[in-house]
Design goal:
alpha+beta; Ribosomal Protein S5, domain 2; 3 domains; four-stranded mixed β-sheet; 9 helices; 6 strands; elongated
Length: 289
Amino acid sequence: MTGFGRGTVSGEDFTVAVEIKTVNNRYLDIHLRMGQELSAVENSIRRRIGARLSRGRVDLNINFERTGAIAYEVNRPLIAGYISAIREIQEQFKLGGEIDINAVARVPGALTPARNGINDETIAGLEGALDQALDDLEQMRESEGAVLAEEMRGRVAKIEAEVPIIEAATATLVDAYRERLQKRITELIARGGQAIELDAGRLAQEVAYLADRSDISEELVRLRSHLEQFRAALESEGEVGKRLDFLLQELNREANTLLAKSTEVSIKDAGLVIKAEVEKLREQVQNVE
């Protein structure tokens, strides 16, 4: 589910700002952008995010700045090598002059900010800023989730509206098969020009066989059950995305079976409507944790 959150905490000698953005993903995929100074707490940050989020691509940007006086470390080996190289150049090419301290100071890496490490106050500030950003993110995701849930309820209602149509068509299937089979046999006899008396018992057996092959009562029972479970999951708390995804697979399977078993136009039309709504629901469920 998409969302954005921001958090900021300031301490005596630091300021940390956290921005978090999420987009749809089937699994939890965390991407961090932060300074090398914070690498020691990377695993802790990932665990903190994982405790609050279960799905989605997460892009986290941490801006950490020290606001107190900054001490510098002198890279003595680097400077010594630089001075040695300058003197070698002077000797080889017979050049005069003194080594300029300003030039030495400008050598990349000669002076670097001292690494004071991450103390408990800094870690607490970082966690506080991260929690603020996650709270902000969840508020946005909850608002989007409410809209998404309402839309999914509407699609479930469309599927439920097709079930009575299928049940009504199923109730007349036996008579329809009998009439269709009898009409077909009569047409074949008329083409042959022979007077043959139909065996009512044999006709009844064929009708029963066709009715048994196209019986969809079990599929309808499962279809209603899956719809009820889907509605219940939408109203429940916690992580329901994977459960909804599974139920949609089952709904799609029942719709395919309905289409395969029945030759009735009304049942096939209803089955196609169900499949179309299931596909739309599948896209939406990818946004649900």
